[in-house]
Amino acid sequence: MSLFRKYYKNKNHATHRQQSNGEKTALGWLKDDEQKANILKTASYYLDIQNTILASLHDPVTQACKILKFDNGTLVIAVPSAAYAAKIRQLTPRISQLLMNQGLNVNEVRIRIQANLYQPEPQARAHTENRTILNQSALDAFDKLHKTLPEGEFSDTIARILKRRKT
């Protein structure tokens, strides 16, 4: 079923208040009011568009993109930097064709740069994993190597490694 038909096929649907059946969750609260239900419907519609793009393009750049708006055939995509914007501009024909195949009439794709949109996963975890790689026998081997090396950069580097691992 196309994305367009999925959300807009039945104009005579029951109100969201009748559909929620008194749910005591955040989604139930959103569904209780027609205006909140429309916001929820629009947000899930945009998420479906975004997930369709992610699932079909398999491009790492699309992971950082967010759908901001789809109105009157204009799709607005937010990206974290100009580099992402350039790549998305290259993918625009594929995105348009993909969404047209889903039943959406896409006339234009606009791109907005929002600097704080994408935060990569912190690298601190990788640093702590490296600490556990050296066991006691490895430390002893580094200590033995350090004692046999002449003074210099390499010897200083080994000394720093040993100092870091012993504290």
From TrEMBL:
Protein's recorded name: DUF721 domain-containing protein
Source lineage: Bacteria, Pseudomonadati, Pseudomonadota, Betaproteobacteria, Burkholderiales
Short name of any one Pfam family annotated for the protein: DciA
